[in-house]
Amino acid sequence: MGTIAPSVGGGTGARAVVETTMTASDTLVFRQGAGQMLRLRNTTAGALTVTLTGADAVSANIPGGGVVNYTAGITSGVIAATTGDVVIPLDSIFNYLQGVISLTGGTGIKASIVSVS
Question: Taking a C-beta distance cutoff of 8 angstroms, is the pair 98, 56 a contact?
Answer without folding.
Answer: yes
